[in-house]
Amino acid sequence: MVTEGREQERISVLGIPSLGDRFAVFETMVKEHNISLVTPPVTKHTLSLGARYSPEFACLPFKGILGTFIECLEQGADTLFMVTSFNACRMGYYAKVQEQILRDLGYRFKFLRFHSSEKGLIGVLRAIKRFSNNASWPTVVSLFRLAVAKLRALDELEREVQKIRPVELEKGTADRLYREAIGAIDRATSFASLRQAMRGYFERLEQIPKDAEYAPLKVGIVGELYVVMEPFFNMNLEIELGKMGVEARRTRSTFFSEYTKWGTFLNALNDEKKELQKFAHPYLKRDVGGHGLESVGEKVRRAGDYDGIIHLAPFTCMPEVIAQNIMPFTKEGIPVLTIACDEQLGRAGMLTRVEAFVDLLERRRIGNILR
Ligand code: SF4
């Protein structure tokens, strides 16, 4: 259910956490409804703002999102958007606490909260109705259809780029096209223009010179959603793996178009969660909040497909600490590198560990071939 804080009624400038560039694909669409979207990229400044006003025990996503909200408000946002949940972890009260901190700092704004239990079709439609200043239902449905098409285009493109990064001859080419494509998806105002733009980008991706002989290692990236998806916090891990010739894969829940597919209770990810629960069950019998269960389930499920797993866990994240302690002891013996993400994590330190891990995976693969 979308709930709202007090203060003014109409949305003029909506501020949302960035999660890479993903939400930039909606800028033009919402502008047509007289709403501007503010989604500032996360930087050191964002994090230092968030850390300055956060309780010291708060986990990294709380600080990052609070810092982003302050930047949104400073850039003129009159409305903020935050996802909340009944989760077993601290996530359940973060939106409330963030709202209170911002009001104590003297900001005036409307606060839209989207409850994660509402992520099925009906919940998303209701959310769009609120974000579009109560547009008529036909408008909401057409906005939804175009938004879904844009999300699918973005996700399909990203999945393709994940495959190309490790095999492209000139590193960075696929990512340059991907960034260009985000702008094209944003500018598309109809299904036809979106299809045409995508066809063009897929053709260009296909034409990128690649090493056809090379079989890259496959590494699954699991862990807390915000650090998995926000390149500032994971130091562009997927791009760095691509430069090392490794193909990165992520869980379905990190591709937002998956939330709009039909499945149990109008949410295909409920089926996915059940599936992961089955895999995690011998080691973890209940949901521990966040993506803890998903991390364990994904490790077990992908043991035969991936060469290794990189597990990203915000420092003090309870669900991921639980997962971290279980993963080394599953009988599915696939290597796992856990990286605790916090304000102190440095790029050089992180990359050194990732390089050493990739080295280990290469030797392991050679060992398996020779055996
Ligand atoms: S999942 Fe972890 S990082 Fe996210 S709110 Fe919960 S405890 Fe914090």
CATH topology of the largest domain: Rossmann fold
- Which runs of at least 5 residues are low in confidence (pLDDT < 50)? none
Radius of gyration over alpha carbons? 21 Å
As a percent range, the share of helical residues equals 40-55%
How are the SSEs ordered, and which strands pair?
Layout: E1 2-4, E2 13-15, H1 27-31, E3 36-38, H2 44-53, H3 60-74, E4 79-84, H4 91-104, E5 110-115, H5 121-131, H6 137-164, H7 173-187, H8 191-207, E6 217-223, H9 225-229, H10 231-234, H11 237-243, E7 246-250, H12 268-280, H13 292-301, E8 308-314, H14 318-326, E9 336-341, H15 347-370
Parallel strand pairs: 2-3, 2-4, 4-5, 6-7, 6-8, 8-9
Antiparallel strand pairs: 1-5
Bound molecules: iron/sulfur cluster.
Characterise the protein shown here.
- The chain folds into three domains: 132 residues, Rossmann fold; 74 residues; 155 residues, Rossmann fold.
- It has 15 helices and nine strands.
- The strands form two sheets. The protein has a five-stranded mixed sheet, with helices on both faces.
- The longest helix is centred in the middle third of the chain and has 28 residues.
- It starts with a strand and ends with a helix.
- It binds iron/sulfur cluster.
